[in-house]
Design a protein that fits this description.
The structure holds 3 protein chains of 3 kinds. By secondary structure, chain A is of the alpha/beta class. Chain A folds into 6 domains: about 1-150, Rossmann fold; about 155-250 and about 330-345 and about 515-585, FAD/NAD(P)-binding domain (3-Layer(bba) Sandwich); about 250-330, Alpha-Beta Plaits, CATH 3.30.70; about 355-510, FAD/NAD(P)-binding domain; about 595-635, Alpha-Beta Plaits (2-Layer Sandwich), CATH 3.30.70; about 665-815, Rossmann fold (3-Layer(aba) Sandwich), CATH 3.40.50. Helices cover about 30% and strands about 20% of the residues of chain A. Chain A is built from 24 helices and 36 strands. By secondary structure, chain B is α/β, with parallel strands linked by helices. Chain B folds into 2 domains: about 1-120, Glutathione S-transferase Yfyf (Class Pi), Chain A, domain 2 (Up-down Bundle); about 140-295, Rossmann fold. Chain B has helices spanning about 10-15, 15-30, 45-50, 50-70, 80-95, 95-105, 120-125, 130-135, 150-155, 160, 175-185, 200-205, 210-225, 235-250, 265-270, 290-295, and strands at about 1-5, 30-35, 70-75, 120, 145-150, 185-190, 230, 260. In chain B, the strands form 2 sheets. A 4-stranded parallel sheet of chain B has the order 2-1-3-4, with helices on both faces. Chain B has a 4-stranded parallel sheet with strand order 6-5-7-8, with helices on both faces. In chain B, helix 13 (about 210-225) packs across helix 14 (about 235-250). Classes of the chains: A alpha/beta, B alpha/beta, C mainly alpha. The interface between B and C is large, with 61 and 62 residues.
Chain lengths: ~800, ~300, ~150
Amino acid sequence: MKQALDDLNKGSNSKDLRIGVYVCHCGKNIGGTVRCEEVAEFASTLPNVILAKDSLYTCSEPGQEQIKTDIREQKLDRVVVASCTPRLHEPTFRAACECAGLNPYLLEMANIREHCSWVHLHDRDAATDKAKDLVAMAVSRAALLQPQFELTVPVKRSAMVIGGGVAGIQAALDMADAGYKVYLVERSGSIGGRMAQIDKTFPTMDCSICILAPKMSEIGRHPNVELLTLSEVKEVEGHIGNFKVKVLRKARYVTDGCTACGDCIHACPQLAPDEFNAGLSIRHAIYIPFAQAVPSRYAVDMNLCLNNQGIVACDRCFQACTRKCIDFADQDQILDLEVGTIVVATGVDVYDPTALTELGYGRFPNVITTLEFERLINAGGPSSGELIRPSDRRRPERVAFLQCIGSRSKRSNPYCSNVCCMNTIKDALLIKEHWPETEIFVFYIDIRAFGKGFEDLFQRARREGVTFIRGIPGEIIEDITTGDLTLLGENTLLGSSYRYRMDMVILSVGIRPRSDASVIQRLLNLSTDTDGFYMEAHPKLRPVDTTTGGVFLAGAAEGPKDIKDSVTQASAAASRANILMSKGEVRIPAVTAKIDPDKCSACGLCARICPYHAIEGSKELGYYRVIEAMCQGCGACVPECKFGALDQAHFTEAQIVSQINQALAHSPERKIIAFACNWCSYAGADFAGVSRIQYPDNVRIIRTMCSARVAPEWIELAFLKGAGAILVSGCHPSDCHYNNANQNTAKRVEKFWKRMEKLGLNKDRLRLAWVSAAEGTQFAKVIKEMEQGINKLTPLQIEETKQKLAKRPSKKGEPV
Amino acid sequence: MKYAIYLGCAIPIKYPGFEAATRNVCERLGIDLVDLPFACCPPPTSLKMVHYDSWLALAALNLCMAEEAGLDLMTLCSGCVNTLKEANHTLKKSDSKRRKVNRILEEQNHHFKGNIEVTHVLDVLYQDSVIEKLIKEKVRELPLKVGCHYGCHYFRPPKVMYPGELSESESYVPVKMDHLLSIIGMEPTEYSRKFLCCGSPLGANSDQDAGYAIVKEKLRHIRERDIEALSVICPSCFEQFDMGQIVLSRKFKDLVKVPTFYLTQLIGLSLGMSPKEVGLDVHRVKSKKLLEGIGIS
Amino acid sequence: MTVKIWNFFPREALYECYQCARCTGSCPALEVAPALGPRETILKCLNLGHDEVVEDERLWVCCTCNVCEDRCPQKIPISDLLVALRNSAARRGNIPDKLEIAIELLAKTGRSMIVHQLDEMRAHHGLAPLLPVPIDEVREILKKTRLDDVVEF
């Protein structure tokens, strides 16, 4: 730290630099708010800047060409681009630098779009001033950048797919067909997922299981696919190219000699609701999920089996099995897999409408959900495809569908579930096809028939006599003698109240993230959006990637989608994974930690804190060193070193200190210094920009890879420079992208708070906030609150902080 | 256990029997009541709709009287509890509204502090210690199929009436009266449209007949479950059912009437009070036969 | 003339409404009388401005049961909206006669019921006479809150 400051003050390595600055208008996105010419002119006055230009689109071909030409002709040795977030175009400009012979790590970006023009839309002066500040910060950091060389790691040519629904099946097949080993991990006893439960698909009215079953059997016999059913992922370690996975494979109690003859089930005395039939029928403790199940093998539900106490109390199934395939001694197993890539296709749950008491689901037998309807009308279902109502097994003559149940609601799922409109139309047509005289009413708010062939199907339903009524019933009343249902509501297009008597009501329930989606989320360090679905790395340009390298998304786990979209996305995810596996190697960013052996006292604190055990050494050896291939570049170890022996490549002490100094060069008392981690909080601030959420313009965001990189010395320095307030922000605890490295963040901030408290300082000026990539509003809210705090500050308080913090300088050997 | 009893207007003036029953029940169950010179609550159906500021200030006056006596308020009416609970909640929460109201009240030497709670007699009786006492003290059971009607203002909107008690996703549905009545041997019976309004405010503000049309709809569902008695916790709901059935029976000759009771009347009966003592003699729909059927006269 | 009602109610909340009609579907007033209903009220506020609404007599056909708010999937505080609109309507003279009379009585006596031979009736039930309302205080407060802008008393 001290060394870094000295370096900076001497400016030893910043002599004779040739920095080029490019200010991008991004059309009107930046240029509409920030006066880019003025910013470029300002930039040209900064130290070491030999040229500064503004252009309409710097990321365009001519824009990039300009940079390349300038590097060659003007002998630029550092490039600063002031444009959008580095999370979007850093790779673009790095490639341009590299192409012109400049080390890509000598590029620095100033985020004047997401963090400036988009969040200060209505104040041109303030936005322009802030942009200048951001450019100045970038230029001072650029002066201290060093060339870095990326390490190449091998990619294992094998993949794991989590979830055996149609998306998982498709992804597994695409990768297996490309020649890679695929482990397909499925929690239940068979692959097939939701699609296997559905009777027909829209808009083509194909038989769902008929088109799915061939794909399922293909998985079953594919030489490259290892199918792991009744299995769950328990642990994931490692990184892109080399994940070490532990999978729990639960005991099936039925060996692979099983021919699915079914002799055992009649012998079994234990019964339970059949999940596959949405609870509308019963199954035995020994069961096969459904007729077309793959693997086509029975399994024993040990929670239900009489032998669940560990002793064989009942062996009727064993006696009934002629091939003697039942093995009560079977045990759970932990499998160790090594894979290069992972595809997440964990699917969705269905909304439970019991909470909407006015609709009577759960109390009135003739109110059912769409999933229950799918099983009722399916030939393999509990009624063998006969449409009957549960109360009296009579065929309903008047059927109502209620749309948007649990969707588009602040009381449940705020989003549109995407598939329900077309699913209802398809279901209505199915009823019409089998029993044309049935009267069908669809109560809706908006019919969203946006896909290929959807509008046709909608019109067909209307032509075939399905009545569409705009207005969701407010209440359903059951006739206690007949079980008939009366729907009360308002037809909003006619502006009149209605009262309809129905034989059966089908609630078109929405879909929602798996209730245990957070398990996989944590194992793989995924982000979730505000609705709880897994978040893609970029909504437009990297729609199947995640922020965790080597992990891809497929199917509805990423957001509600129909079968076609799930399959499309699965193939895309497989293709992305195939690229990695076919290349066989991947470059990892050169942001690793480094230990200066001359300064290292071999205390070992850093090794203890490293979440990846990437630091080795001992007191006896007299040194510690970083194993570069294992270091993930969080930087959590750096602030831990009391001797200044550690530093992180590309996020060095000197670089960040220069940013802090520059940010606080003018009116520091008005400024908020915000340290934001690359994965969550910086992305969250980006999201605030994308969403155009306006917040105060006095915040200066400094990016680190992980919030654990933030050193208490930085906080102290900023306060000594007179900063009004400081924000340290990172991923939510347990969502950290570096194996919970951010628990160190909390510890260090708490320590600093204690110090401030002891000195009698207002500790509200240092704030710790967890902001996820989806929480743009939260980021803006935090900044607004901090701004209010700053408004109450007096110059006296700032001076007091400076003096008190300076009085007790951090002694060597004692952490602050 | 001590409360300031907030009688409201309708109960002491129109249905003193409810008041007598409530005072008697409370005394027997160890609840002390203190009388204060309260004004009209004022109703959420009238003054609040016409002039919110006046409604809030007048409610604050009532709250201040209880604060000055250092007592929580126990109301007997769903309307009163709605007004007083909401006003209390609003004034505690909003600094600006509290300042505005206090500026007016201070001229009358009152100051809203926000240090009491407002509750309804149903909630008071539903406390564990009171229920234990009731189980000990009751002298007879009332084996009747009873339908409960809570009165919308007792529990809606839940964000005001039961802050923190409701889940975000679910419709809030009260159950306390059903539970309490099962303790005195009644058979609380669910019926369709149990939480439909009684229609009283509709009659008061616009159209009496429209209000009674709702009573008719409710009665249909009550009768279909063979419910013999109705229990209410609000004088307006009571009047709507009691008077409404008489009016309706003039028009619909075959209408089967269901006697309506105020909650503490039923509890009073189980504690050994006579029908006359709890004021059943002034009810328009007579319950004499029904009660004789279970040995009460 | 534009009536200020947005002091009472966050107007942005109305934009959440997508006219699903669950509110009107559960409205008891609309079932038996020509009420305006929350859905139409909100739509008119959004499309025609609330002036149109506060002049409509049907605005008062309401049970104030608040079931609409309970059912609203978007959690729009409908009860607050209806209070704000009716307050404005009353200020403009759109107020049902019955209600005006009731409020006049309230302001004059501090009670919303006419007291007549009360003590004997209460004695019949063994009850003491009712404590008198501090009527001067009540009237003073109602004067200060300017109730007489709407209803004279």
